[in-house]
Fold these 2 entries.
Entry 1:
Amino acid sequence: MKTYNVTVPEIAIVAATRGIGGVGAGLLLAGLLRPDTRRTLGWTLLAIGALTTIPIAMALFGKREHPALEG
């Protein structure tokens, strides 16, 4: 089994980036704003959420403990 040590701030960062991406996707699907504003804002938030998830995931997966190497 793979084990990860993740702190509360790291979990908060992951949740925030996922939330930003979700808000962006929601804006793309909703009809609450003018179409051009909605599209611009939606794609921007979705891109920010997706692009910030990549380095965060790499940092978290890089912290993985290797049980066979310990003790």
Entry 2:
Amino acid sequence: MVSVSVRKETEEIALIDLIKKEHLCFLDVKSKEEAIKALVDTLYLQGAVPDPEGFFKAVLERERVISTGIGMGLAIPHAKTEEVEEFFLAIAVLPQGVDWQAIDSLKVKLVFLIGGPKNKPRDYLRLLSDLTKFVKDEKRRSLLSSAKDKEEFLSLFQG
């Protein structure tokens, strides 16, 4: 089990608790906007995002401030809204890679879209930090970006 956790009211939840098979996508897209839109649509269909257009706009606004392409083929777009009560995570594997204006100019192959409530900024920052630390491991990142299906990808968060 992944040891990364974030406070949720009085209990802690592991990162694996935020990762849902239904929120994992393998995408063939041409832009970061397409990737973000596909993830937001997936979250909406699963009931995690009540206002997909508002959330999509919030994520794009955050991208305009500075790219969430953190380098190493990773992007962690994120936004907080008042409509959301719980943290959620959607993941995209982009086998072809997408230009994300990342700090190292490499194409992004893994996208972790985080959403959460505005009233829990501390938990939000902790989750963002912990996720970043988790995916910065080179071997883990390589295995995640080369996963062939959802089961293989999700198994990398176990053990």
